[in-house]
Amino acid sequence: MVDVLTEITIKCPRETVATYAANPDNAPEWYENIESAEWLTPKPLAVGSEIAFKARFLGKQLSYVYRIEEYVPGKLLVMSTAHGPFPMETTYTWQSVSGDSTRMTLRNCGTPAGFSIIFKPLMSFMMKKANNKDLHKIKQILERRK
Question: In this structure, are residues 139 and 10 in contact, taking their beta carbons and an 8 Å threshold?
Answer without folding.
Answer: yes
